[in-house]
Each structure stands twice: as C-alpha cells, then as structure tokens.
Amino acid sequence: MATSDLKILLVGKGAREHSLAWKLSQSPSVQHIYVVPGNGGTQDLPNVSNISHISQDDFPGLVCFARDQHIGLVVAGPDDAVVNGIAGYFEDTGIPCFSPSKAAAEIEGSKAYSKALMEKYDIPTAKYKTFSQYEDARAYLQSIDCSRVVLKVDGLAAGKGVVLPANEAEALEALRLMMVESKFGSSGQSVVIEEFLDGDEISVLTFVDGSGAFKSLPPGQDHKRIFDGNKGPNTGGMGVYAPLSFLTAQDLETIDREIIRPTLEALQAEGRPFSGMLFTGIMMTRDGPKVLEYNARFGDPETQTMMMLLAPECDLATILIACCTKKLQDVAIPVRPGFACNVVVAAGGYPESFRKGDVITVEGCPSGVEIFHAGTEKSTDGQLLTAGGSVLCAASYGSTLEEAVSLAYRGVQAVQFKDKTYRTDIASR
C-alpha cells in the first residue's frame, strides 16, 4: 500500500473512538478516517469525517459504505458491535476488520461463558455460581455472607451491570432489579454471583493477531465508582492512569504466563481463535493475579490513556493491520517513558438519570492535554452540547505521574457545562 492512501472506517461515537481517531490520524499511511457516527469532537480532527446517515449497528450498510469508499481497514469500537459479530460481515470482503469473531467475542458477551472457560482451563479467577432462575439465586444469597460477593449480569451492560452489595438487603434488591425488573434487559436473564476479591484492580490491553502472537500495553488502573473514595454505583469508568508503579516485571510476566497466554490458547482450543484487542480486568491479590472480566475490544476510558502513552512515532494503523494479517511479531509498539492520565467529566446524575442538551465550553486548555469527546454533539448553530452521561475526558501525558495528573485536572477545569461532575482522586490511591 502506498504512503498516505489508507482509508479507515472507525465504528463508534465515544471518547474511545475520538482518541483512536486522533492517534490514527497521525499515522503517515492514513489518508482519511470515516467515523460512524462519531461525535462533536471527532468531526474537528484533520482528515476525519463523521458519517451520520448509517447506524453503527447496520453492519450490511457499513459493508456497502466500506466498499464504495475503498476502505482499507475497519476498526470496531463499541462492545455491542464486536459481540454482535461485525467481524463476520467483513470476513468475505477482503477488508481487514480489527475485531474478534462473534464466537471469540462471547468471552465478553457472556460472563457465564467466560467463567466456565476459565474454570475449564484453570485460569485464575474468583469462585462463582451462575443462576438463570431468580428463586434459586435468591435462596443462594440468603445462605451466604452477602457482604463478600459480587453480582454480575451475564450480558452487556455498558460497565454498569456489576454490583458490590454491603449486606443481604442490598444484594437481594440488586438481584431483583437484574432478574425480575429487567433493569438490564435480556443481559440480566442469567446472573453470575462470585466471591469478592481483595487487592488492586488493573486493566491490561493486549493486541492479538490470532497466530499466537500478542503484545500488551502497560497496565492501567480504572476508577469505576462515581464518587471519590470509590463510593456510589459503578459507571463505565471515571478515570485511568498508567503505567502502575506497584507492578513489578515479575508481575507482568506472571500475568502473561498465567492469564493472557492461557486465555488465548483456551479460545484456540475451543475453535474460537481470537484476534483484535483483548482487554483483561485483573485483581492483584495476595494469591497472585485473578481475572475479574474480559472485554473483546478497546477499553473505555483505558484507551484514552493508552493513546497518550503511545510514542509519537507509534504507527497505530500499521499495528492494527498487523493484527488483522497475523504479522504482529513484525511491528513494534513504542511507548513513552513517562505517565498518562485521563479524568472523565460526566453529567450530573450519571450513571442514573441525567440531562442532555447543556452548552459546553472549553477555554484555556493547557498544552499537552487532549479533550476527548464522549457524549457530545454539535447543534445546528455550531454550539457544543451534552448528549450523554459520560460527556468527555481530559487526557494528558507527563514525565512524572504528578505532572500527568495535574495536567489532566487543569484540562478538567477548562471544561464547563451545567452540573458537571468528576472525581478528584484519580491516581491518588
């Protein structure tokens, strides 16, 4: 492929996709990026266009668009696109699609499947039970210490389908909302109840090419609860920093040896070879690392931090194509030596009910900070408006963690809209 003639179709509309478009647009091989549907931030990037007349769920429509525009790479962002099998629609087109198959993506699409896979192949994880009948699950909760369990809906829930109850009453109410009230729709028809794990939670993003080759980025740490001090309900994530100084080289080797490689080998053995991005949530316990969950795509908000951590010379487009063509071993993934951080700015009331349509202003954002848009849109008169619960994030890089965090919060202060909310303790634990 000649220099600067690669056209990319990027599917999604969040801050994850904005950060991917930002980094991909810096690749010397990239001519243009089309984002379906994109947001108020992606449309302002150079050589990037939002495409609003096609739904991100219209896979046949995306295939037609890709053919018409001579797309050379498709990148799937959202979990539902990946889990619902977008890769299969491009399989016979000859267009590389950075996404695992629908079969491989079940590792994210079903908590019950992923737990059973880990149990079968001795991949370390929390003890668990799966229930498809409400009364059985209710009886089980009434027989155990509910302050030491975690309830998870089986299917996709935008990062909000996990509850850590403080007592039996909270556990039973969470179960009722999941299985009786169908708060999470069909995702809550089955529920996984597992033991609570103590330790430090980390996120590992791993590029995988389906041939057995994989390369992980430096682990980061997300902050999932809405309020400071890890209080309140779970969200899709309120901020991430990386790398993590408390992890040793031996820890990283153990994670690769006991979790990442066995997971990929297990999927291969099951006839579900994985290629794309494997995102593994891990708890570093006294007994070693244990898997909390798998995601089959770029994490959000982890990706925004990782894009800041990648070196300026890192050609992300080349890396993604290498994953699609089983050539990951042939490419380098250069990472800057310092630290990266991002802080999510959300609408008041998130993750429950929140208002949309408030005017957003961004003034005085310091150099070295990128504002990645999530729930934003442009009005007909060009104003930037809130359009979701997670509105945007301020992402930064610094030679020290303190510098990166300080820069990110200066970016947060540059963003103004009514009732904005954010955590003030990202990277402080």
Written description of the protein model:
Its EC number is 6.3.4.13. This protein has twelve helices and 25 strands. The protein is of the alpha+beta class and 429 residues long. The strands form seven sheets. Strands 12, 15, 18, 20, 23 and 25 form a six-stranded antiparallel beta sheet that branches. Helix 1 runs parallel beside helix 10 (302-309). The radius of gyration is 21 Å and the shape is globular. The mean pLDDT is 96.
Key descriptive features of the protein:
single chain; about 425 residues; alpha+beta; Rossmann fold; Dna Ligase, domain 1; D-amino Acid Aminotransferase, Chain A, domain 1; 4 domains; six-stranded antiparallel sheet; five-stranded parallel sheet; 12 helices; about 25% helix; phosphoribosylamine-glycine ligase activity; Rudment_hybrid_motif; metal-binding; PRibGlycinamid_synth_ATP-grasp
Beta-strand segment tally: 25
- Whole-Å distance between the termini? 46 Å
Overall mean pLDDT score? 96
Q: Which band does the percent of strand residues land in?
A: 25-35%
Which stretches are low in confidence, meaning pLDDT under 50 for 5 or more residues running? none
User: How would a crystallographer describe the biggest sheet?
Assistant: 6 strands, antiparallel
Instruction: Quickly name the level 1 CATH class of the largest domain.
Output: Alpha Beta
Number of domains: 4
Structural class, please?
alpha+beta
Enter the CATH topology name of the largest domain: D-amino Acid Aminotransferase, Chain A, domain 1
User: Helix proportion of residues, in percent?
Assistant: 25-40%
- Gross CATH architecture of the largest domain: 2-Layer Sandwich
Write down the overall geometry.
globular
